[in-house]
Amino acid sequence: MSEEDLKHLMNAREVLVQKRLTWAQTIAAPGDVSDNAIRSIIDVQRAIEVIDFAIEELEQTELDEELEEADED
After folding, report:
1. What pLDDT digit, counting tens, does each position of 45-70 carry?
2. Domain CATH number, residue 21
């Protein structure tokens, strides 16, 4: 993956964090909390975790490649 891939992942994460905040505000509003709002915030959190994992994988791959290049020198 490239720097562009990392940029896409970070942008997607940012959008999902905003969506999570929106759902949290919905849940925090006075009145009954809908099951849909709870399910939605859980789904968004899971998506954030998947993206975090992908970012970690990308960073590890880049680190591994740098180490291989250093070993070749």
Report:
1. 999 999 999 999 999 988 888 888 88
2. 1.20.58
